Amino acid sequence: MAILSDHIEQFIKSLLEEYDEMVELQRNELANYFSCAPSQINYVLATRFSPEKGYYVESKRGGGGYIKLVRVEADKHAYISALLNSLQTTGEISEKAALGLLENLQARGYIDGKTARMCGAALTARALKLPANLQDRMRGNILREMLIALQGEE
Known about the structure:
Layout: H1 2-18, E1 22-26, H2 27-33, H3 38-48, E2 55-60, E3 66-71, H4 76-90, H5 95-107, H6 113-122, H7 132-151
Antiparallel strand pairs: 1-3, 2-3
Helix pairs in contact: 1-3, 2-3, 4-7, 5-6
């Protein structure tokens, strides 16, 4: 399945490049194109095109459903503000999502590799020796403070 997910991701990214960073897709048409279930398309969108990775996804179900996908190109301050707002809403973040967010910050040039690795190490379950039900909330608190510190560098 990972290979199929990679193909779907690359296909969508190529469409985004071709159509100026915004594309509308029919979920069922995309699923038919890749001979997969629409849930596979949902999985790729949720895991590879999240706000933490710099994308805005608007999805409408029913009638085949459509997906509007926008790559968010923002300056450092606006991007970090959007991430902080997202963390403020949920207050929690999984280890995988937090590490993906750090990877995206590095890819955008907002932090270097050493900083990404150090911050990532502080956000792992191994570092957060807490009951599992508290780890995501604590990780969200720590990451929020890291982002505030990064935003204050300007």
